[in-house]
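Question (not urgent): is this output format expected?
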Amino acid sequence: MNRTTTGQTNFAVVGCGLIGRKRTLALANVPGAALLYTCDLDANRAADLAKLAPGCTATTDFATVLADARVHAVVVSTLNASLAPLTLAAVRAGKHVIVEKPGALNAAQLRTVQAAAQQTGARVRLGYNHRFHPALRKARELVDSGVMGPLMFLRGRYGHGGRKGYDREWRADPALSGGGELIDQGVHLIDLAGWFLGDFAKVEGHASTVFWDMKVDDNAFLSLRTAAGQTAWLHVSCTEWKNMFSLELYGRTGKIIIDGLGGSYGKEKLTFYPMHPDKLGVAPEAQIFEFPGADDSWSIETHTFVEDIRQNREPAPGLREAIRTFEIVETIYRQSGYPVSEAGL
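Got this back:
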């Protein structure tokens, strides 16, 4: 196993589109991380991205990346259909991997990657960067401090309006995406819900295609319940028209509302309402936290992954969480009559 416990951690980025660029820029902000390769089937895209990192080599040959013993870790940021095959190849070559969500086309592919990672000792982190947004980090801090009391339930909504021709892009092709809006943005909400409430014992809901001319879902509605009875009520949509993100957490002694993710989703803001049992029915005073700065979630997530490698610790979210998220997605698709990808590795 190719490990690094001290010193520099060397990366390669595979997939040089929009997300690959975000990952490359994030690496530049992580102390002790260096980018050795950019890799893409499009040589021009790989070359353009390599310009952002002095001394970086652009290539179209992934085998060259895997054969280089100087490379400790690989960022996989391609279309969904390529995520698991590339991750599996990297893991088998002894490389650590941060792979963009959802990580595969189905849960079975992730289980294959998980088995390989257990054999080689490679660490695999799923790119659920929403956990690292400042409002979500603040929510985690408040919940962990105990001011919310035991959590009872949460509500989450996430959506966008697509764009002209959206139903002809790769996300609308189940062979390339594995599914629609539930796999695209829905997995973020499922991951966040599990982060706060834990594993879900009961999964109910449905997905549907109500507007876009495509074979995958454009809306999904989920009711997830833990064994203890905590509920996550989630809705994701690409018929939202105005981009939006909202997450509400309800505890016995407090409530958190998170709105926005920055950019087109609006200013990121967290409002905390402390509830005093002896003042039931009295409107609580709100504590408001606003986060107008640039999105630093990608850099913090990457820094956390570097620490995963150096400390030889299991990433969270890692393959276990990603598999469970996919199992929920597949349950909803089966309940709704959508086919579940059976692509193997």
